[in-house]
Design goal:
Helix content of chain A: 25-40%
Distance between the termini of chain A: 38 Å
CATH class of the largest domain in chain A: Alpha Beta
CATH superfamily of the largest domain in chain A: FAD/NAD(P)-binding domain
Radius of gyration of chain A: 31 Å
Bound molecules: flavin-adenine dinucleotide, iron/sulfur cluster
Oligomer: heterodimer
CATH superfamily of the largest domain in chain B: Response regulator
Strand content of chain A: 15-25%
CATH architecture of the largest domain in chain B: 3-Layer(aba) Sandwich
Helix content of chain B: 25-40%
Structural class of chain A: alpha/beta
Number of strands of chain A: 28
Number of domains of chain A: 5
Number of helices of chain A: 22
Largest sheet of chain B: 4 strands, parallel
CATH architecture of the largest domain in chain A: 3-Layer(bba) Sandwich
Number of helices of chain B: 6
Number of strands of chain B: 7
């Protein structure tokens, strides 16, 4: 209720742990996000965006600020990530909440603001060198700068961004990467040296240390294409004209070296079944090629030998006319007068052995030959080992010797290694390494223990048992025939679609690690529960009705509330027959007080509306409706019969309870339970000739016109009762 | 628990209309649905509204008791609160109403509810069902925890009548045949031989109506 003023502090996210092992309890999407974005919170905030466009715009920037804090590359991630979506509780029901598209809208608006966003305080602590400017290096630099260190990035190429620069433009516009990186450098006061190769003929690590850098983070990625092999030996003829690595093509296209019709009327064969191979195939197709992609894996992505590329990639590529040949390996590259001609492809019977090791087996009696003019090998990337060999960072078997937790080299103090070079993965994972390395470097420079308290264990929060799964909105792509160019073809969501999609999120994790509603200004603090054990009569109703399974029985008497599960709907307080429960900020007495206040503000009390805050409607302008009072409630289920009757006793002609539609209810059962209890009350009122004084209706969130219509209809009903009575 | 339903309000209003100061007493004991302080409050408010529309002003006082059917408890809790009440409205089962009538012999005590049976709650089906007839000779040990006295309309003690259709009772097809339920559960527990024993006819004297405490 309005007299409570939100406090910044009360909106701060807290970590919640559960169970004897004290595992951190979170929505699975958040556990999946390597950067720990407060996913649920931002979804709640988007779902609660105010109707006023200016207010909404401010709120979006605030959401952007919060995400930026944790992930300064989030606009990039909104095009190329989506790791969280893979773990969304919704995924196997009607499809994951499209976080990536939600963040895209935030990013699109935030990017404009980012150019002028304030900088961090100028760092003045020790100097740290970061080698490589991919996502890993950038993240590490940002985090160190936040912690006050002076960071220099040494990048051998002429451009920052690492492998991000290889991602085709139809997936992410170049401008987004440029803008994010230049802002990052500005905001975090990061110094950059381009064309600064470390190792080889370039500087050694000792040279860098001599320049006063106290620690070094190596995030040099995997810039080298992997060679085709058969039985552990390289396949011959890779030097034929027309044979190259797919990565080279991506580089040349993004650098503008390859002409737009590079592969016009050429037959292009791409080898590989991963996402990068699909990037290459779709790029080649956009250059006019007739493209065939060959991979070892089969079509059934759920099987052990299934294709690793994302479903969307395969689908998109197929639409674009790319032929995918599954379950074939390449054992021979055949040329003619120095030019590539064809490959020999036996059927692949299995890709991985029992232990999951890569060990393809072939049926050499089932062989096909594929003809082509160009062969693009895209079967993986590897490290450039020069630096690591020179600096003695490789252990036995030529493997990097890195501590899993601290990311410090086991062989050289003060040298930290992370990102794809350590373990190939996604951009966000490389960033996680960067973050982790920054933590270690901070501790290292301060002479603290590098490992203490760093390993955290997590437990997935499940969805509410009554969850209502709304269908997933489709991604809209420009039709295949119109998208064979380098313009992005995935349509962004509109603001309305974003709010709608954010509302689909079930907010699986605990309120304390969310507080989205508090941050959005819906309530001043997360409400607690007051439970008076002496009043409790052990009826069990609270436990039965709680939509969040937050209440359990204590033996031999009473109940207990698990505040990591409670969502503050107040249903328990409303059903308890003994009135043993109160919801903080919505105590019975406070609601009664609000009713009295509403009466006192009116000349002639007309209608009192109890409005669920999750309907996100602006406060009614009292001047327009002088006879309507509104009391906000955290959930329609919080409304008690007692309060409705009190309002009637105080002279209101009618009471309208407005909830969200059942499928939109933030507590899943709140709307339904409210309706049930109001119908029961209406039934009792009709026994004493006061039928139709209490109304229940649902209003689609943010739909002011529905609200107006319902209020108008109810008003007419109450007026007609009034005129009947006066007759 | 004792299963009760609220009486129609006009009936209750009829009881109390001659009086003004009324003590409304909930029962926190076994009645289901629970009728504690909340219901005492809600009921008073409804009656207040009903009274006002008929030009009558009541003065309600609301309270509740652990269990109204205990005369000692009821007296100890309620006597100090009775004040100048002219009538008492009870939200307990018939037992509570009668106990209050005994505790306040000089006042009229009215039932706000109808009392139905000893029943159990099935939350998922949303029903309260009579499951015990208070026969005084509990058979549940040999009938798999299902009472044929209460749940078989014929009260058969030695197996099904043979008229069940699709496992439903021939007298009330909406009900499961109690003996089919008994058979199934004993089969599941591998105790079908329990059915071989003979159970003599019910001794109605055992039901009794008074037991020393
Ligand atoms: C085509 C393609 C598509 C991809 N698509 C996605 C996607 O959709 N989603 C996703 O999450 N991930 C994607 N990835 C993976 C993602 O780009 C990488 O995981 C991420 O970039 C790794 O970051 P990093 O910082 O470890 O290394 P990189 O990004 O590889 O950066 C390493 C940097 O170090 C520099 N460097 C190397 N050696 C030296 C040296 N000796 N001295 C100085 N500098 C050096 C390099 O020039 C480079 O700039 C894709 C990768 C590719 C190639
Ligand atoms: S429904 Fe929302 S909170 Fe739950 S896993 Fe999915 S995105 Fe996360
Ligand atoms: S009620 Fe809980 S889950 Fe919902 S927005 Fe608020 S804090 Fe988040
Ligand atoms: S407020 Fe709602 S979620 Fe919290 S314990 Fe009560 S019923 Fe459960
Ligand atoms: S609803 Fe009230 S009386 Fe019943 S168990 Fe819960 S706290 Fe106790
Ligand atoms: S008065 Fe009736 S409802 Fe109350 S405890 Fe006794 S038997 Fe149960």
């Amino acid at each position: 209720m309005s007299e409570l003023v939100p406090q910044e502090d009360s909106a701060r996210v807290e970590e919640v742990s559960r169970g004897a092992e004290g595992k951190v309890y979170l929505a699975p999407c958040q556990i999946a996000c390597p950067l720990g974005e407060d996913i649920q919170r931002s979804h709640a905030m988007l779902a609660l965006l105010p109707l006023d466009p200016e207010e909404a715009a401010r709120q979006i920037i605030k959401i952007g600020d919060e995400i930026y804090e944790k992930n300064p590359l989030f606009p990039v991630c909104s095009y190329i990530c989506g790791l969280c979506e893979r773990q969304c509780n919704y995924r196997d029901e009607t499809g994951a909440v499209r976080r990536r598209m939600l963040v895209r809208l935030v990013a699109d608006r935030y990017l404009k603001y980012l150019d002028t966003a304030p900088t961090l305080p100028t760092p003045d602590k020790e100097k740290v060198a970061v080698i490589g400017s991919g996502p890993g290096g950038l993240m590490c630099a940002y985090e160190l700068s936040k912690r006050g260190y002076r960071v220099t990035i040494l990048e051998r190429s002429r451009e920052l961004g690492g492998a991000l620069r290889l991602i085709p433009r139809y997936r992410i516009p170049r401008g987004v990467i440029d803008s994010v990186i230049s802002s990052l450098l500005r905001i975090a006061h990061i110094e950059v040296r381009l064309g600064a190769e470390i190792g080889g003929v370039g500087k050694r690590l000792d040279d860098i240390k001599k320049e006063g850098y106290q620690a070094i983070f190596l995030a040099t990625g995997t810039p080298v294409g992997r060679l085709l092999t058969i039985d552990g030996k390289p396949v011959d003829n890779v030097d034929l004209e027309g044979v190259t690595f797919g990565l080279n093509l991506l580089y040349e296209v993004n650098q503008g070296i390859a002409s737009p019709r590079f592969y016009r009327s050429k037959k292009v064969i791409v080898v590989g079944g991963g996402n990068v191979a699909f990037d290459v195939a779709r790029t080649a197709r956009r250059l006019g090629g007739e493209v065939t992609l060959v991979c070892l894996e089969n079509e059934d992505r759920s099987s052990r030998n299934g294709i690793p590329a994302d479903e969307d990639e395969v689908e998109g590529a197929t639409q674009e006319g790319i032929r995918v040949v599954y379950s074939r390996g390449v054992v021979e590259i055949i040329g003619e007068s120095g030019k590539f001609r064809k490959i020999k492809c036996p059927r692949c019977t299995s890709v991985f052995d029992e232990d999951g090791g890569f060990n393809p087996r072939f049926d050499h009696d089932d062989v096909v030959y594929l003809d082509g003019d160009v062969l693009l090998v895209t079967i993986g990337q590897e490290q450039d080992r020069t630096v690591y060999e020179q600096e003695g960072l490789l252990g036995e078997g030529g493997k990097l010797e890195v501590d899993e937790i601290t990311l410090m080299s086991n062989l050289k103090e003060g040298v930290f290694i992370g990102g794809d070079v350590r373990r190939i993965g996604f951009a966000a994972e490389a960033m996680w390494d960067g973050l982790n390395a920054a933590e270690s470097i901070d501790r290292y420079i301060r002479g603290e223990n590098l490992t203490a308290g760093r390993k955290k264990e997590y437990q997935d929060a499940p969805v509410l048992s009554n969850a209502y799964y709304k269908p997933q909105p489709p991604l809209v792509w420009v039709p295949a025939e119109e998208r064979l160019n380098f313009e992005p073809f995935e349509e962004a969501f509109t603001l309305e679609q974003v709010v709608e999609e954010a509302r689909r999120c079930l907010c699986c994790g605990p309120c304390k690690s969310c507080k989205g509603c508090v941050a959005a200004g819906l309530q001043p603090v997360l409400p607690g529960i007051t439970y008076d054990e002496e009043l409790c009569i052990n009826c069990g109703d609270c436990a039965y009705y709680c939509p969040c399974d937050a209440i359990s029985f204590r033996s031999p008497h009473g109940v207990s509330f698990d505040m990591t599960l409670c969502r503050g709907c107040g249903l328990c307080a409303a059903v308890c027959p003994a009135m043993a429960i109160e919801l903080e900020n919505w105590e019975r007495a406070r609601i009664s007080g609000a009713i009295t206040e509403a009466v006192s503000e009116m000349k002639r009390p007309g209608i009192l509306v109890f409005l669920c805050q999750w309907t996100v409607l602006p406060h009614l302008d009292k001047k327009i409706n002088p006879n309507v009072g509104i009391i906000d409630v955290p959930c329609a289920a919080r409304v008690e019969g007692i309060h409705i009757l009190e309002a009637l006793q105080q002279g209101f002609g009618g009471i309208l309870i407005i909830a969200c539609p059942e499928e939109d209810c933030h507590r899943q059962t709140g709307s339904r339970e409210a309706q049930r209890s109001i119908e029961a009350l209406d039934n009792r009122l009709s026994q004493i000739g006061l039928q139709d004084r209490v109304g229940f209706c649902t209003v689609t969130p943010r739909h002011q016109e529905e609200f107006d219509r319902e209020l108008e209809r109810f008003n007419r009903k109450i007026e007609s009762i009034g005129s009947k009575e006066s007759r | 628990m004792i299963v009760t339903t609220l009486k129609p309000l006009d009936e209750v209003l009829g009881f109390i209309l001659p009086y003004s100061d009324i003590l409304v007493v909930g029962c926190d004991g076994c009645n289901q649905p629970p009728r504690g302080l909340r219901e005492a409050s809600t009921l008073s408010q409804l009656l207040d509204l009903a009274g006002k529309s008929r030009g009558k002003v009541f003065n309600f006082k609301m309270t509740t008791v652990g269990k109204q059917c205990d005369d000692y408890m009821a007296a100890s809790v309620l006597k100090p609160q009775i004040g100048n009440a002219e009538a008492v409205l009870s939200l307990a089962c018939g037992l509570g109403v009668q106990t209050l009538a005994k505790v306040f012999p000089e006042l009229p005590v009215f039932p706000a509810q109808n009392t139905h049976f000893m029943g159990a709650e099935d939350r998922d089906d949303g029903i309260l069902e009579m499951r015990c007839a208070g026969c005084g000779d509990c058979l549940l040990a040999v009938t798999g925890g299902i009472c044929p006295v209460a749940r078989c309309p014929k009260g058969l003690l030695n197996g099904a009548c043979g008229g069940a259709k699709d496992d439903k009772c021939e007298l009330s097809p909406e009900k499961d045949c109690a003996w089919v339920l008994i058979y199934n559960i004993l089969k599941r527990q591998g105790k079908l031989d329990l059915l071989k024993g003979y159970r003599p006819p019910r001794d109605y004297q055992l039901t009794g109506w008074k037991i020393p405490t």
